[in-house]
Structure formats: structure tokens, C-alpha cells
Amino acid sequence: MPRYCAFFSSLNVGGNRLTMEELRHALRREEIDNVETVIASGNVLFDYEDRPTEGLEELFGFIMAERFDIDSFVAIRTKDEVRAALEDNPFVGFGEDAQVHTHFLQSQPPQENFDALLAAYKGRGEEKFALGERCLFVDYVHGVGQSRLTPAFIERRLGCRTTARNARSLGRILAKM
């Protein structure tokens, strides 16, 4: 069976408190195999029959809503897609791994939405952007906490939900996969 990683958004923020043990238990009850959390921030490795990741994202989103009453976007990627999210990021190796992020996107935004994001953010900060395959790559330069580039800002411009991980975390997740 293929190995996947689920990247959960909005966990343990804004009142959406959930332990990784609760999450693992819920997924196992849904007959999802070999469930393992990596780094206590909503990263779940699992095995599942070979199927498109978009369908799995819907399943995991449904589980979150039904079991925990949490509206969480869940980006699911194969091992190859996680590797690509790290290797295709043009800022890896140039920026600090803790500041270089891959935003996993719910869908591939049209180029004009990416252009709108760039235009809307111009002059607001020194972040660098690049669009990938269902990914937005960002070098936060001075840190996410200092940035005015928020997930809500990105989501409004791109027209899809997102959840991000830094290059260091992605490296650890990929190694575990």
C-alpha cells in the first residue's frame, strides 16, 4: 500500500485543541493503516489503498468535522509529492530552513491568482514567492512571526485553502516516510 502524509491546518490554534493521540485513534477507527504522527503539529503518516489524494483530503476533512467538529483543510501528499515539495522549492539551500516554507494548496490556482497575490503583497515585506504544483513556495526571510503574509491573505488571493510546513519539518517527514 502507498504511504501518504496528511498535513492538517488549524490544529491546536484558535480553540481547535486536539491531541495527536486523539487524531491517531480517530483515523485508526476509520481503518486507516500504519498511522503515525510526526512532530506534534498535525502531520500524520499513513498507508492507504492507491487513490487520488484529493479524495483522501475530502475523507480526512469529513473525519475532522464529524468526530471533532473542526473545519480543517487537510493536504494529503504521496512520498514523491512531499519530496517534490522540498526539492522543487527554489529557496531551499538559499534561505534558512526554518524560514523557507511550502504551502500545500487545496487546488492549483490559475496564474492570474498568483499574479494577484504578488501585486497585492508588493511593498509589504521582503518575502520571496514561487508557484509550484499545488504548492506555494515562500521564503519568509525574517520569520513567519514577523511577516504580514498570513494564510488568510494567501487564501483570499489564490482562491484556495492552504497549510504550510518549513523545509526542516518537511525533511524530517520525508525521512520518516
Structure described in brief:
The chain is an alpha+beta fold.
Rounded mean pLDDT is: 92
In CATH, what is the class of the largest domain? Alpha Beta
State the domain count.
2
Which oligomeric state applies?
Answer: single chain
Number of H/I helices: 6
Please outline the major beta sheet.
4 strands, antiparallel
In terms of DSSP E residues, the strand content is 15-25%
Question: Structural class of the helices, strands and pairings?
Answer: alpha+beta
Radius of gyration: 16 Å
- How do the strands of the widest beta sheet line up side by side? 2-3-1-4
Which residues form runs of ≥5 with pLDDT under 50?
none
The CATH architecture term of the largest domain is: 2-Layer Sandwich
Question: How many beta strands in the DSSP annotation?
Answer: 8
Describe this entry's structure for a reader.
It is a single chain. The chain has six helices and eight strands, in the order E-H-E-E-H-E-H-E-H-E-E-H-E-H. The strands form two sheets. Strands 2-3-1-4 form a four-stranded antiparallel beta sheet. A four-stranded antiparallel beta sheet has the order 6-7-5-8. The protein is an alpha+beta fold and 177 residues long. It folds into two domains: 3-78, 2-Layer Sandwich (Alpha-Beta Plaits); 81-176, Alpha-Beta Plaits (2-Layer Sandwich), CATH 3.30.70.
